[in-house]
Amino acid sequence: MIAELELEKAQTETKGRSPAQDAFREFRRNKIAVGGTLFVLLVVIIALGAPIFAPYHFAEQNNLNNREKPMTGYIVTTDHLPDCHWANTPLEWGCTIFFAGSDSLGRDIWSRVVYGARVSLAVAVVASSVALGIGIVYGTISGFAGGAVDNVMMRIVDFLYAIPMLPIIILMTVYFKALSRAGVDTGVAGFLINLDRMAGGLLFVFIAMGALNWIGMARLARGQVLSYKQKEFIEAATALGATNSRIIFKHLLPNIIGPLLIAESMAIPGYIFFEAALSFIGLGVNPPTPSWGAMINEGYAGIRSNPHLVLVPGLALVFTTLAFNFMGDGLRDAFDPRMRGKN
Amino acid sequence: MTLENKTPPNGHASDNDVLIRVRDLKKHFPIKRGVFRRQVGAVQAVDGVTFDIKRGETLGLVGESGCGKSTAGRTILQLLEPTGGSVLWNGKDLAKVSREELRKSRRHMQMIFQDPYASLNPRMTVGKIVSEPLRIQGIGSASERIDRVEELLKLVGLNPYFVKRYPHEFSGGQRQRIGIARALSTNPSFIVADEPISALDVSIQAQVVNLLDDLKANLGLTYLFIAHDLSMVRYISDRVAVMYLGRIVELGERDTVYDHPQHPYTQALLSAIPIPNPKEDAKRQRIILEGDVPNPANPPSGCRFHTRCHYATDICRQEEPENRNLGTAETPHMVACHHADQFQ
Q1: Which of A206, A232, B52, B249 has its Cα between 20 and 30 A from that of A60?
Q2: Strands laid side by side in the B239-244 sheet
Q3: How many helices (H) and strands (E) does chain B have?
Q4: Is the ipTM here above 0.90?
Q5: Among candidates A278, A280, A266, A240, which has minimal Cα distance to A322?
């Protein structure tokens, strides 16, 4: 009898699983999603430890060895070393090994791809935090306040949505780059130019991403707030005497944050592609900072004779965005079982 | 508060055994149309409801879907802002007190919700849900709150080991018990139960109703019990109010209303209750109402029930019926019908 009671106690006392914990278990079962997440983590590690993973600095040129094919090693110093192949030669001074070949300036492609991961991830992080930060705050206020406030805030969003951001960003970039070349470094323009330089030429990409993407997030957050605002547990909290801030932070946000994070994780590949596209048309990073898009741009003219110039950064781009996509899909499936298997 | 000092209108319980006085309570939802969102009308969900709830009683509020019973309950608790009228609680009009005062006084009046699946935050553990009112109202220390949660869970018949579990791990009946425990946590004196059983299985309904009844006896609670299940209301209520289209048409002691309904609507409503004995049931005379409930945005003139009433005459179409007391001064039986005393 006592043993039975103990058993019952053991069974009932176990901690319940929160919806998030359930979702995590579900996520772990999804092999593609786990693979994607691991790949994303790998890219993050490589980007953070770029100096370790890149044998050379991304700007280090070697004009004797431009456009070398991958997996080739060349002796670049005057004192000739007899054998300098990837397979059996350690990387040492005087012997250049191009794991992924070199570009037209003799820069190591692999090193540039490794450093380029930093740009892609920086864009992903900045764009998604701006979108989440501004979007959630704006959308939550709009949805929670309702009525006229909601109306005005959403009309502002509609207005911003109607502005074609891309041409404006192109004009801004061109304008400030021209000012920068003309040597302007005072006033607001100078401040922006310096800020841009500090961001490696990415300031306007960040502004473009932020301006474009918080809008969608604000709408999504507002929609979520509106749907949860009607739920009885929110009314119950009011009936208990909860203040508005308590309702927002304890009841609304924990419930709406999941779908918003999922939406954001699915938007990340888009950010990375957007940066690559801007860099490809010459609006992104300042040379010699490598970005995958800029590298594709530099290499595509010689794609027939030297396909690795495009293939290596292109594959990095494809695999990274795919990995983010798989991760996002996995998250969505884990949190919203109704969506499983759909797109 | 002059309202409180007034002699109560005929038929309303006087003196201090009244917990809540609802006077001419109105809740209209505006209908807005067009580009400029001009108000073109209003859904008169609750339109002039007056009653008292005595300390320690259960007042059953019945009526068909859309008649405004839930809105009335929510407006009394100020979850919806009343369009007009007053709700007197301890001599204060809840519609007029400051937000902060209202927030503080919420510990004395709680609500049990209809849908046990929607009324609990899915991201909070049972312990958090049940102790939230205590935290909001700043009652007790952390350890006292843990003890209180355990006590409450036992009180509503749940295992206290459930505190770390999440709502989705429970059945509908168990969730409703969690909701009841939450409503009880601050020791309220008044509870609005908004169709607390209509989302539950029949077998579970009986358990929950009995639980509510026991709690009332043990804790000295007062209920406003909103339901459309007439037998359940008869079982649990001391007095019954019948609502139709935003108004109370009949209000009286339970047995008086059920055994001698005076308003034609109440008669029709009660005639719809099936009798378990098939022989008896065959003899039951059903009053079938024709037509639908009129649009509450454009209620009929005169008596609101005249469009569906078998006894309607010209006066019903023109004049609004007054509340008439067909009972005694001690046990009033209010009927809003011009012909009430003719249906004996």
Answers
A1: A206
A2: B109-112, B190-194, B222-226, B58-62, B239-244, B247-253, B334-336, B323-325
A3: 12, 12
A4: no
A5: A266
Smallest Cβ–Cβ distance between B115 and the set A16, A232, A243 belongs to A232
What mean pLDDT value characterizes chain A?
78
Q: What is the pLDDT of residues B262-291, one digit of tens each?
A: 888 888 888 888 888 888 778 777 787 777
CB contact under 8 A, B161 and A9: yes
Q: Are residues A83 and A154 in the same domain?
A: no
Angle between helices A31-48 and A308-335 (to 10 degrees): 130
A122: domain CATH number is: 1.10.3720.10
Compute the count of residue pairs across chains A and B with CB atoms less than 8 Å apart.
83
Instruction: Encode burial over A192-222: b for 16+ CB neighbours within 10 A, e otherwise.
Output: bbeebeebbbbbbbbbbbbbbbbbbbbbbbb
CB contact under 8 A, B118 and A19: no
Cβ neighbours, 10 Å, residue A333: 22
Range of the domain at A84: 68-101
H-helix or E-strand containing B40?
strand B38-54
A154: three-class secondary structure by DSSP: helix
| Cβ contact B119–A9 (<8 Å) | no
Q: Is A25 on the interface with B (CB under 8 A)?
A: no
With respect to residue B36, please indicate whether it lies within any of the assigned structural domains: yes
Q: What is the pTM of this model?
A: 0.77
Q: What backbone phi and psi angles, to 5 degrees, belong to B179?
A: -60, -35
Query: pLDDT (tens digit, 9 = 90+) per residue, B286-344?
Result: 787 777 778 888 888 888 888 888 888 888 888 888 888 887 877 888 888 888 777 65
Strands B18-33 and B38-54: antiparallel
The answer to the question of residue B295 being in a domain is yes
